């Protein structure tokens, strides 16, 4: 479905024509994620059902200037011919920018290698405030209009925008309409406000996404609160959106989009407990997913950053690492000496294989136990905990989340202070949130009982890699 080369401004499609004919009407979208939605992860995610993926955010000015001649190949490696190739489509390249000319220059470099260019209007962190991008442009509508409109008029492929909601529905809708009038051909609406970050992240507001969807004529992608497979349909029904986008859910379970009926679940040679079907979704053994990911990293020409690989492994294997602390420590000690360090990948693989043997033994020991008994309830949240050998979402307690958010922020500041690139890091959910949407996995419990108190909401926060012993990865 994806186009193989640049279209001309005269022939480029827009809105639903573009969404259907070029992107193939995707419903399952993987979010732009700094250091995490890199080519190898995209390949894995596509295999397990992702239908459209965004690159990590790229700093437009640095990409266009590329004074060090290293930023460009690191962020989007055109030379090797794999990023944006037919196997890596549909693909949207995301930029952070605050200057229409630099943005256009950067976008021109990738226009023949992706299906659209997205503008990040959502990053809420202090580094984005200082860098003057992301959600801190939310009050500069003229500038946003010019950036979008410049790409709309001068780029051979469509421009799209990903943004956060405002505190009121009215302002959110007015903003979305402005983005559409500037020329954005798809709007991704993250249902959290700019203030919902760090330990104030909370839950996304699907009502506001619905209002946006009803107000604009271009396709809308809903973002926020997708933890389990069953959340996908719930979100689509609640928002009326054309597709859902997942970030953290995808990182902890790259098969989040895979339906439980999928044939990947049936392998008579393996214990019947090895894969778990729940709420319409498939939970595959995380060690097998990790081995597949490492094989992709090793097999492609495009080099993957050590921080990306380490970040993925710690998130993916998290349900088991609390038990296998010896392997967790060994994982943490591996030094990746350079981008694409094959020796380090082999070391990671050896550890994952050891973990895999232990997980297989645990799954075998559980054979004969009904699936329902293998699934327990996470006490503070009421959400489902799968057996420790399968990929699953991660929940964490608020105080650690807050500490983690602050730690991330400080580290990011250090990176900037050292001349590194300001970027957007994870946004853990937290307190002070609006009530969860009633149909989400999170919301079902909350609404069936009572409106949750803030400290209870605080407990429904996803866990971080810190708790699994992961050295905190800083977006760099
Ligand atoms: C590791 C990580 C990196 C992220 N990097 C970006 C980014 O580069 N650009 C962006 O627009 N949002 C970024 N985000 C935000 C996500 O795209 C998404 O909007 C947010 O996490 C909410 O979705 P979720 O509830 O599915 O996690 C990032 C999130 C995570 C977890």
TrEMBL record:
Gene Ontology MF term list: flavin adenine dinucleotide binding; tRNA dihydrouridine synthase activity
Domain annotation DUS-like FMN-binding: ranges: 30-275
Residue ranges with Low complexity bias: 417-432
Cofactor needs: FMN
EC number: 1.3.1.88
Pfam family, one: Dus
Catalytic activity: a 5,6-dihydrouridine in mRNA + NADP(+) = a uridine in mRNA + NADPH + H(+); 5,6-dihydrouridine(16) in tRNA + NAD(+) = uridine(16) in tRNA + NADH + H(+); 5,6-dihydrouridine(17) in tRNA + NAD(+) = uridine(17) in tRNA + NADH + H(+); a 5,6-dihydrouridine in mRNA + NAD(+) = a uridine in mRNA + NADH + H(+)
Stated family: Belongs to the Dus family. Dus1 subfamily.
The protein, known as: tRNA-dihydrouridine(16/17) synthase [NAD(P)(+)]
């Amino acid at each position: 479905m994806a186009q193989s080369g640049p279209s001309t401004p005269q022939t480029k499609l827009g809105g639903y024509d573009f969404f259907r004919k070029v992107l193939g009407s995707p419903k399952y979208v993987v979010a732009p994620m700094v250091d995490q939605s890199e080519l190898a992860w995209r390949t894995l995610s596509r295999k397990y059902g992702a239908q459209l993926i965004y690159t990590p955010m790229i700093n437009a000015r640095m990409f266009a200037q590329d004074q060090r001649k290293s930023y460009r190949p690191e962020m989007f490696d055109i030379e090797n011919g794999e990023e944006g190739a037919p196997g890596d489509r549909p693909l949207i390249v995301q930029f952070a920018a605050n200057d229409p000319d630099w943005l256009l220059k950067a976008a021109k470099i990738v226009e023949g290698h992706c299906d659209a260019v997205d503008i990040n209007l959502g990053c809420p962190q202090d580094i984005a405030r200082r860098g003057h991008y992301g959600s801190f442009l939310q009050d500069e509508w003229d500038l946003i209009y010019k950036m979008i409109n410049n790409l709309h008029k001068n780029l051979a492929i469509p421009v799209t925008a990903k943004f956060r909601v405002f505190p009121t529905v009215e302002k959110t809708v007015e903003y979305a309409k402005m983005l559409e009038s500037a020329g954005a051909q798809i709007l991704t609406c993250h249902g959290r406000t700019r203030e919902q970050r760090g330990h104030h992240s909370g839950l996304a507001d699907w009502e506001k996404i619905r209002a946006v969807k009803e107000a604009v004529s271009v396709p809308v992608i809903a973002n926020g609160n997708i933890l389990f497979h069953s959340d996908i349909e719930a979100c689509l029904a609640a928002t009326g959106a054309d597709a859902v986008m997942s970030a953290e859910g995808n990182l902890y379970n790259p098969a989040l989009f895979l339906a439980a009926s999928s044939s990947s679940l049936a392998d008579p040679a393996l214990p019947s407990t090895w894969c778990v079907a729940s709420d319409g979704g498939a939970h595959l053994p995380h060690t097998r997913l990790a081995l597949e990911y490492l094989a992709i990293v090793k097999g492609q020409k495009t080099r993957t950053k050590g921080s990306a690989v380490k970040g993925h492994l710690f998130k993916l294997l998290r349900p088991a690492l609390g038990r296998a602390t010896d392997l967790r420590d060994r994982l943490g000690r591996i030094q990746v000496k350079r981008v694409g360090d094959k020796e380090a990948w082999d070391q990671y693989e050896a550890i994952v294989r050891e973990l895999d043997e232990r997980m297989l033994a645990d799954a075998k020991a559980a054979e004969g136990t009904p699936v329902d008994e293998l699934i327990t309830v996470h006490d503070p949240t009421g959400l489902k905990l799968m057996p420790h050998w399968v990929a699953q979402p991660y929940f964490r307690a608020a105080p650690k989340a807050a500490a983690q958010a602050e730690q991330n922020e400080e580290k990011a500041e250090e990176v900037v202070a050292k001349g590194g690139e300001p970027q957007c890091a994870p946004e853990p959910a937290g307190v002070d949130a609006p009530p969860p949407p009633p149909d989400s996995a999170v919301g079902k419990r909350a609404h069936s009982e009572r409106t949750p108190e803030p400290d209870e909401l605080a407990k429904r926060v996803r866990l971080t890699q810190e708790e699994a012993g992961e050295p905190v990865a800083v977006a760099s």
